[in-house]
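Example 3.2
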Amino acid sequence: MLSKRLIVCLDVRDGKLAKSIKFVNTKDIGDPVQKARQYYEDGVDELVFYDITASQNNRDIMLGFVKAVASQIFIPFSVGGGIRSVEDATKLRLAGADKININTAAVKRKELISEIAGAIGSQSTILSMDVRRTQKTAEITSGYEIVINDGTAPTGIDALKWAKLGEELGAGELVINSIDADGTKEGYELILTRMIADNVGIPVIASGGAGKPEHVYEAFTVGHADGALVASIVHYGDFTCRQLKEYLHNRGIKVRTGF
């Protein structure tokens, strides 16, 4: 059985580490490069860097910050925000990103998933999905809708259908960002995570809502996730990455440990 992955998310706005609650009330909370190094030294498995206003402001991602973070860590590093072409993805790979996260641009033009997967490989092409609960309709049969532009624009696209299509088009992994759970520290959206994990054949990463080690454990055992993305729980010093992994190890979850 493959080890479960603990992944820290670095949301960056105007060059500073930021954190929101349900994608609003975003606050600057530190230096992303310094935090990246801290989490790497503390044993995190992967880091994800999101330029959270690049798509909304229709600008390119900040390559300088990607290079700075990549120079400080030696673990898999994913980058997302403002990626609209194979050229964008290639620039980020050259700047040090191991994986490319696409979100808004892929929803607007689904062929982008296949194009990037063809250029850099499915294993490096990550489809990131921002999802909000909604009323079930004939179009949104799962009751979960894809929202783009940093949670500001509903699309009418069913999340489960989009996840399946993303896999068909070549995405090698899915990140399921629950807008409803984001920053609440009340636990992951387990129904959504499990629904998608049980219906695709590629790794699924739970994202949004971790507030204590039990929540991460539940993402793996109840949500059937392959990885769990954390942010507030470590950014605010509630727990360290090492403490989270020790907890998971002691509960019987297979994780990479250095202890």
